[in-house]
Task: structure prediction
Amino acid sequence: MSEKYEIGLGNNDVDIRKNAQSDFISFWDKQAHNLTWFSPWERTLDWNSPFAKWFVGGKINASYNTLDIHQKTKSNKPAILWEGENGDSKIYTYGDLFKEVQKFANVLKSLGVEKGDRVTIYLPMVPELPIAMLACARIGAIHTVIFSGFSAASIKDRIDDSKSKIVITADGGFRRGKIVKLKEVIDDAIKDFEFVKNVIVLERAKNEITISSKDKLWTDLMQCVSDSCDAEKLDSEHPLYILYTSGTTGKPKGVLHETGGYLTHLHSTFQWAFDIKDSDVFFCTADIGWVTGHSYVVYAPLLHGATQVMYEGAPDFPDMSRMWQILQKYKVSIFYTTPTALRMFMKFGDQIPNSFDLSSLRLLGTVGEPINPEVWKWYYKVIGKEKCPIIDTWWQTETGGMMISSLPGLETIPLKPGSGTLPIPGVEISVVDEFGTEVPPNTKGYLIIQNPWPGMLQTLWGDDEKYKTVYWSKYSDCYYAGDYAVKDEDGYFWILGRADDVLKIAGHRIGTAELESCIVSNDDVAESAVCGIPDEIKGDVIIAFVVLKEGILTDRTILEKALFNKIRNDIGAIATPKEIYFVPKLPKTRSGKIMRRLLKSIGSGNTIGDTSTLDDVSAVTEIQKIVENKS
Ligand code: WTA
Result:
């Protein structure tokens, strides 16, 4: 029996779960009425498995629902309390945001952006990032935000796939006191792309940049436009954005989210999970370049007219007290962060957070990876002072919003450190075996989602077939999440990590295939396999095994350096392995499949278990020796 924490906010809406269970379609139909629609929908769900259309016939706009609807009552209420890494700060009220978004929507129009066009956004965590996204949404353009830590080669693939007409970037961004030259990265990424008509450059870091005929400065453009632009009345299923994420193949997948269903999912989960009140100050530490930032920094808080803190920089800059300083300064009441960040804070002890006034906090959350129970307890005691419920929210880029979480805004249930608890109302989730049969309680299996849900991805951009195979082919008519999980005797879910070749490093998704194809693109390399091994702070870190081509004499230290550089240049620093091991061969099954499980065990110093399917056992002994010698 795991430990239970009886803490809650006293909310208890039992009917909502009952209604959701009896008919999930009417349940979501009711939830969609929380949004403002230009015209009502005719059908709640068209389900042509595995393609869903939610609220068919309804007309809606995401920018209208996050801005226009608040103007009467909240135009002076702060929407974004922005904290720059270098100590700059700025407040954007709902009125300010409304004006800036309309102006920027007019800028996009003046550059020829039309409904359905794609716009790539590569910006640091500055208010202009949500402004650009909401401006796209306002005119029906599809934004595709790329995390500002990705390299030119990664960006190039993504822009090529989405065929964006416009790219929005900054001269530079601040990261741990240094300037990251974002404009330079974009220049490199788009040099062969005729289809990119213009690059809009925000001057943030004021570093020197080269200006070409395609480039336009944000401030110049904003001076020449009016501050009024009506929101387009868009179909509910009109695409809102593409967000690229790593999968099991070498190419990132363009996850496509539509408007009406996605916003419904966000509106409801934000209320249920965070119990949001008008007086709250919400702070989600995610970068907008990832899905958590899209859903729970940009869309959900603004749909609710909430006030939130947005922080530009690294959580440990200039030192380990930065987060707690921000919580104290802005009197944050709801704090949503990652287990990786918490493990790092915990390592530096209680004294740092204890020297700040964190009494404004009333609810805590985590996302992105499993949280170790001891970290959960630290978060609960040291940060929440044993008075704040913790929500552990399981979801994915593909699900759009939370799918498993305790919901203090809805009900009070006992919390168990390390478990996400129950699925949200209106979704049905199971743990099944290889054949799709539900496994008994406390047995490891695959996590599947049984019904369509409103926040679900529409498809993969330009690749309906891949959408079907990746998510809907392993189990017919059920969504395969790619995670291992256990459901316990109380029906609580425990997520055990990825079941496929996707790595979670410090909460970020990295595809093994993407990384391996980058390594083998080095001329000296014949083969490579990467895997994740446990790390005290990051959850997992990457180790890479590399087999060189016959007769390669290049010095291994030089080669190792070249591979590290290549990975940083082609993917980004987040994909850098902790170790690279040069090995004579990789352990494979007789049918030629690399046994990553064995590599993971060797890398973590564990016993290697069953090797009966292995083609050549000597490969393992040699790799073990190499790993031992290097550590
Ligand atoms: C993992 C992030 C355990 C999981 C929102 C999932 C989690 C992947 C949790 C999606 C959690 C997310 N507990 N694991 N609370 N939340 N995950 O697309 O493996 O970046 O499949 O979305 O993160 O990662 P993504």
The two ends are 37 Å apart (CA to CA). The pocket of WTA is lined by residues 245, 290-292, 367-370, 392-397, 420, 481-483, 495, 498, 504, 509 (CB under 6 Å).
